[in-house]
Design a protein that fits this description.
InterPro entries: Ribosomal_eS6, Ribosomal_eS6_CS
Distance between the termini: 111 Å
Strand content: 15-25%
Family: Belongs to the eukaryotic ribosomal protein eS6 family.
Structural class: alpha+beta
Number of strands: 9
Oligomer: single chain
GO biological process, one term: translation
Order of helices and strands: EEHEEEEEHEEHHHH
Largest sheet: 5 strands, mixed
Keywords: Ribonucleoprotein, Ribosomal protein
Strand order of the largest sheet: 2-1-7-4-3
Number of helices: 6
Organism: Leptobrachium leishanense (Leishan spiny toad)
Length: 324
């Protein structure tokens, strides 16, 4: 197994190959981000403490923090996950990754020196690799040089030398980010003023809309009330018209009934003679011979009762129904 060991204090890293499995046994069954003593690697590593930062198995699949297994799993990864770099916006992909537990199937194990030991490791702790670029953010420049907010950060920018043969030496400085200048403060004041204007404008528009909505609601309510009143007037007019028509029909019905009664009374012998004789109300000899007035009065009473039952009573019931 190969060990890729780095030392952040000097910026150096070194790849060593370890064939003795007894030296590697101290790393087995350990998780990522676990701090382990490096004494079993040799006498020169006495006192060193390293942190397991990752590794790759023999097929090249990387270890992923949080996957508590020895083997490989396939996970659906998206932007922000380790072991995956999306090629398109919002892209997700199922990738094979290895668990975060160390075993003998790894080809490379990445280690970071947390605490330096007694001796120097050649090529790792005995030399320093300078940083190629200095800090670019204003707060980090202040932190590096221990500056206060009143100090000018632009004088402490780490400049990169650009030297060419036969030309004048010059340097290049990066643009400082998050630097507070009068222009930045002016832009901030302008943004705040625009925000206040938008807020005021939105309030005025909301008030105008509320007034217009109340006006339209009132108009719609008045229109609805007018329609209801108009319907009530029309319904009352129809009711009065139908009532007058029914009373007129009832009056004309009474007149017609009287005329029919007179006509039936006058032509009794031709209109109802057979029916009255069939019902036994009249005798056939009562119209030809009138032996006495008592018999004639009885026949007239029977005729009146039959006329009332057959003609007058249905007309009266019909008039009463139309009035109600």
């Amino acid at each position: 197994m190969k060990l890729n060991i780095s030392f952040p204090a000097t910026g150096c890293q070194k790849l060593i190959e370890v064939d003795d499995e007894r030296k590697l046994r101290t790393f087995y069954e350990k998780r990522m981000a676990t701090e382990v003593s490096a004494d079993p690697l040799g006498d020169e590593w006495k006192g060193y403490v390293v942190r397991i930062s990752g590794g790759n198995d023999k097929q090249g699949f990387p270890m992923k923090q949080g996957v508590l297994t020895h083997g490989r799993v396939r996970l659906l990864l998206s932007k922000g996950h380790s072991c995956y770099r999306p090629r398109r916006t919002g892209e997700r992909k199922r990738k094979s990754v290895r668990g975060c537990i160390v075993d003998a199937n790894l080809s490379v194990l990445n280690l970071v020196i947390v605490r330096k030991g007694e001796k120097d490791i050649p090529g790792l702790t005995d030399k320093t690799v300078p940083r190629r670029l200095g800090p670019k953010r204003a707060s980090r420049i202040r932190k590096l040089f221990n500056l206060s907010k009143e100090d000018d950060v632009r004088q402490y920018v780490v400049r990169k030398p650009l030297s060419k043969d036969g030309k004048k030496a010059r340097t290049k400085a990066p643009k400082i980010q998050r630097l507070v200048t009068p222009r930045v403060l002016q832009h901030k004041r302008r943004r705040i003023a625009l925000k206040k204007q938008r807020t005021q404008k939105n309030k005025e528009e909301a008030a105008d809309y509320a007034k217009l909505l109340a006006k339209r609601t009132k108009e719609a309510k008045e229109k609805r009330q007018e329609q209801i009143a108009k319907r009530r007037r029309l319904s009352s007019l129809r009711a009065s018209t139908s009532k007058s028509e029914s009373s007129q029909k009832c009056r004309w019905g009474n007149i017609n009934m009287k005329n029919q009664f007179v006509r039936h009374k006058c032509s009794l012998t031709t209109f109802h003679h057979s029916q009255l004789c069939r019902r036994g109300a009249l005798r056939s000899s009562s119209f030809t011979f009138l032996p006495n007035l008592r018999q004639f009065a009885a026949d007239v009473r029977r005729v009146w009762s039959l006329l009332i039952i057959n003609f007058m009573l249905p007309q009266m019931l019909k008039c009463a129904a139309t009035r109600t």
